[in-house]
Write a structure and sequence with these properties.
Blueprint: E1 6-9, E2 16-24, H1 28-35, E3 46-53, E4 56-66, E5 77-84, H2 86-98, E6 102-103, H3 108-115, H4 121-132, H5 136-146, H6 149-173, H7 179-203, H8 205-213, E7 215-220, H9 227-235, E8 253-259, E9 262-268, H10 278-292, E10 296-302, H11 309-321, E11 324-330, H12 340-347, E12 353-354, H13 363-376, H14 389-410, H15 415-433, H16 439-447
Helix pairs in contact: 4-5, 5-8, 6-7, 6-15, 7-14, 14-15
The chain binds ligand FFO, guanosine-5'-triphosphate (GTP) and magnesium ion.
Guanosine-5'-triphosphate (GTP) binds at residues 221, 223-229, 242-244, 246-249, 270-271, 330-331, 333-334, 356-358.
EC number: 3.6.-.-
Binding site for (6S)-5-formyl-5,6,7,8-tetrahydrofolate: 22, 79, 118, 453
Enzyme class: hydrolase
Length: 453
């Protein structure tokens, strides 16, 4: 494959300790030779020296050359490790372009790595996810994929399919030998098992989403129960205005924090109640929207008050939106008029967390309850978590096609039908590794990358 030579700054824009310029393509060595002349470069060895243009010093740098295919992209690649000066880097990059490279497009280095077989599509996507990970859990999930664990699993699935297909094809080819019954008996359990494994992997998407994006949690309750105080206590910030006036919070307030490496995206909402106030009404609508967009809602009650119609109104809203709920009894530092029994009588078999947003009592326990919830649907197999909608879709589709194949088998349909479904499942799986995706999809994936990657 002939490819032109691309270059870009691989490190973030601006001032830094060191900035790296990366050059990749058939002419990478020529370009390097011109900006950083040497007799030869031992691949992988770093050399210290100057970059001079028309006798004028641009920077003192470290340079390294990697020979194809032993590089990140699989092409000849050179790197210039410059001082992290915005002006200096600009000068060197311009010089590199003048010496025969052209600016790389976003994701173009990794795209070349993919096209040269250095990694599959799931690994390339994981590179992007790892860079933008905002929590330990997200970093861990993407790093697992980056090292090829998802690819290996998918290839395992495909190998099973390939074997099954070979057997089915034997039955098609020698119909007179009545192999069909025998083969059906042989492969049926294998296919059932495979379908289950594929579906199981797809199911890790719920946990994968939490790892990647964080868990979306809203705080809901009638006005003045202490929702904003709880947002401040959980995030350890003075983020939301707190006042002893019902209806203080008008708009939703979002703030993220992490517990045990899991990102929690918390939304404080306006107290929900029936109101004729125009602004408050819109606040309530936004609260309902925030609740619908959350997986988990902290339903807050004031322990100093009996349950009121307003509390029941909030609870009804939560029931309607079918979110999971943690009930919290707040203001326990002040008084306790509301008993746990009364709460259970009203709202069912909940285990309220007893807190004081003011003193911090019970906040750690509440955090633990939230983290336990995040771990609840942990169905990870061998630590692989699906974090990408595209991958989940492909797995769902493959599981569906496996189901179709089994139905065809059980209905005693023509073996050709089984072959079509199994081939379909194989193709769906191939979308994850990139074996069976269109150019457009590959384009779409790589243009989302950052420049220099
Ligand atoms: N300076 C620098 N640091 C970096 C990168 C880079 O491109 N440059 N990477 C970019 O993302 C990551 C490391 N990824 C890399 C992956 C493969 C190869 C590579 O040269 N592979 C060859 C040879 C392996 C070997 O010598 O054992 C190969 O696969 O054949 C280099 C970097 C993170 N750190
Ligand atoms: N004693 C005590 N007071 C609290 C506690 N939490 C909140 N408060 C007080 O209750 C009042 C209302 O608190 P907020 O946090 O503004 O309540 P809110 O639910 O956000 O109210 P709205 O935004 O109006 O819906 C304030 O005066 C807080 O100081 C608590 O744990 N104990
Ligand atoms: Mg508030």
């Amino acid at each position: 494959m002939v490819s032109d030579t691309i270059a870009a700054v691989a490190t973030p824009a601006g001032t830094g300790g060191v900035a790296v310029i990366r050059i990749s393509g058939a002419n990478a060595k020529d370009v390097l030779q011109r900006v950083f002349p040497r007799d030869d470069y031992v691949p992988g060895q770093m050399y210290y020296g100057s970059i001079k243009k028309d006798g004028q010093l641009l920077d003192m740098v470290l340079a390294v050359f990697f020979r194809a295919p032993r590089s990140y992209t699989g092409e000849d690649t050179a790197e210039l490790h410059c001082h992290g000066s915005a002006v200096g880097v600009e000068n060197i990059l311009r010089y590199v372009m003048e010496c025969g490279a052209r600016p790389a497009q976003p994701g173009e280095f990794t795209r070349r790595a993919f096209l040269n077989g250095k990694m599959d599509l799931s690994q390339a996507e994981a590179v992007c996810d790892f860079i933008s990970a905002s929590s330990q859990a997200g970093a861990k999930a993407s790093l697992g994929q980056l090292t090829g664990r998802l690819r290996e699993r998918v290839v395992e699935f495909q190998d099973v399919l390939t074997d099954a297909l070979a057997q089915v094809e034997a039955a098609v080819e020698y119909p007179e030998e009545d192999l069909e019954t025998e083969i059906t008996q042989d492969i049926r359990p294998v296919l059932v098992r495979l379908k289950k494994d594929i579906a199981h992997l797809a199911d890790t998407f719920a946990s994968g989403q939490i790892a990647k994006e964080g868990l979306y949690v809203a705080i809901a309750g009638k006005p003045n129960v202490g929702k904003s105080s709880l947002l401040n206590a959980l995030t350890n910030m003075d983020r939301a205005i707190v006042a002893d006036i019902p209806g203080t919070t008008r708009d939703t307030i979002e703030q993220s924090f992490t517990v045990e490496g899991i990102r929690i995206n918390l939304t404080d909402t306006a107290g929900i109640r029936r109101t004729n106030d125009f602004i408050e009404k819109q606040g309530v609508e936004r609260s309902e929207k925030a609740i619908n967009e959350s997986k988990l809602v902290i339903f807050m009650l004031d322990a100093g008050l009996e349950i009121t119609e307003e509390d029941q109104f909030v609870f009804k809203t939560l029931k309607n939106s079918q979110v999971d709920v943690i009930v919290v009894l707040n203001k326990l530092d002040a008084s306790e008029r509301l008993s746990e029994e009364a709460v259970k009588m009203e709202f069912g078999d909940v285990h309220p967390v007893r807190i004081s947003a003011k003193t911090g009592l019970g906040i750690d326990e509440l955090k633990k309850r939230i983290v336990d919830y995040a771990h609840m649907d942990q169905t990870a197999q061998e630590g692989i978590l699906i974090t990408n909608e595209r991958h989940r879709h492909a797995l769902d589709r493959a599981a569906e096609q496996m189901g179709d194949a089994l139905d065809a088998l059980d209905a005693g349909m023509d073996m050709d039908c089984v072959t079509i479904d199994l081939n379909g499942a194989w193709t769906s799986l191939g979308e994850i590794t990139g074996k069976t995706v269109s150019e457009e999809i590959i384009d779409r994936i790589f243009t989302k990358f950052c420049l220099g990657k």
